[in-house]
Amino acid sequence: MPVLTLSGVYKSYGVEDILEDTSLVVHERDRVGVIGPNGSGKSTLFRVILGQEVPDRGEIAVTRGARLGHLRQDPDLDPHRTSFEEAMKSLAHVQAAERRLRAIEEELSRVQDPAVLARLAEEHGSVQEIFERGGGYQMEARARAVLAGVGLPLSRHDQLTGTLSGGEKCRVALAQVLLSDADLLLLDEPTNHLDLAGVEWLEEELITHARAVLVISHDRRFLDRVTNKSFIFSAGGEKLYPGNYTKAEVLRNEEARALASEVEKQQDFIRKEKAFIRKHIGSQRSREAKGRRTRLARVQVLSLPPAERGEMKLDLTPARRAGIVPLVGRNLSAEFGPRRLFSGLDLTLEPGDRLGIVGGNGTGKSTLLKVLAGRLAPATGEVDLGRNVDLGYFDQDQSWLPRSSTVYGTIRSERPLWTDFEIRSFLARMLFFDDEVEREVSLLSGGERSRVALALLLLRRPNMLFLDEPTNHLDIPARQTLEELLREFTGTLIVVSHDRWFLDQVTSRTLWVAQDGLFLYPTSFSEAAETRRMRQAAALAEREAERERSAKPAKETKKDPARKKRRPLATIEAEIIAKEEEKSTLLSELSSPAVYADGLAVKQRQTALAKIETLLEALNAEWSSHAEDGGGP
Question: Cβ neighbours of residue 535 under 8 Å, at least 6 residues apart?
């Protein structure tokens, strides 16, 4: 059943057409990736659906009673409410149902009139259904679990949102939307501000909960995991494809090849027809030539779509070669206030090494990058840069850019001897065209500022690149081109990123910064993540086996015939009481929001609970057998 239908929607700003004959149908449980370059119309599509902008023409229909949930890039939170209170706003109707249930129950205890009792009982049933459908019994635990899942620790749940960072506010807003009972979620870049664990948690959340989703994202791994349809904006228009990002790209490439073949065949036909007409017009076959000319005039000429402005052409060839060992770090550690972020790091990089640094938010990835680059002194240890190392550093916020300068002026200051033609040609390679080169850096979008920063990095031609979240604000075509260029880069690369696809394309080693230490893997991200999961699973299995060995009674032997005798009833009863206490503790822990939010912790306790229940079965059977015999040995 459709939740949303768009038919022939047009929207323009002045002379620029943003949406042209856009049509889209979203059914229940569809998870549609909205994909396209920055500025192609994705956010306009969302605003039109939400009624924030009126289309010039076309129709938009939302199924009667369907509720929309929207994640904005700039969340509007009450600064005087806590994160938990803001998250719970999505469950206001469930809280209202709970209050009404308590009021009805109080009335039922006082009223004697059968008619009133019947009315109250009927209302209680309907309100109870609303309460249960909204997860009323678990709503507070659910809210805390979702806040923890998107990466907001328990210590921040009762903190006023006015004191949170921008990224933390975005996570609270995401939790609000996920907690709502909306039938269609419109999510604009939901993985922004999430770390790897948060992104993976969100993927499971969206896959598990059966509702329709429209999601704008440049995270290709996320799109592949979550979506089952792809609505792609391109220079040739918008089109809905079945399947996730990768499947849609395969279909798009097949269509492009088929169209190119058809265009070539048609052009060959037109050339031959024109040649025949030129040759025979005015001859004995003039009538046939005129007929062919008439038919040719009616042919609808096929053409390829205009080229997309998605290529970022960079040349990152180093100006000179670095020494044999470009970087050595010994016993490195760093602190943030009283907290130790990491310690004991020994790291040696050789020319051409490609190291990805990954980990959760707040673990110290960017700090580590700054320490390795010499931008921040370590708490302990030292970093030695090798001979002839020319270091290029790409910062997350590009705060070092001359914001009052124009794009043109920024390049002019770096290359004062270049001609106007050379500067404009270079900026065209960086996707700045015509009047765009005269825009001030302070007025640029995040992606445009990133391109300026990369342009300056290119001009300096380093042989060692330090990149801190270089794909932030870049659209998919720009990320693809950056990946190609970095694969061609012959120097040493160190990159902090949460873009899993990007990491797999450009790195060959992975340094995982975790709360429990630093872990270096000789592979790119996906292989490192799988190795890490396997090791964690093996460690968990070993702990469970050790617990089982500790709980298991000593093995009977022939040398100790007393062990073959039945144990005293009091001993069995004591064990039953102890196991019941363990069971009670585990059940209590499973109801804790902190544990509920941690999938691994939940699994550990559920496994332990299953083993205790099995053991209790055996103990109770042993006790029953004992009791039936009168408790004797």
Answer: none
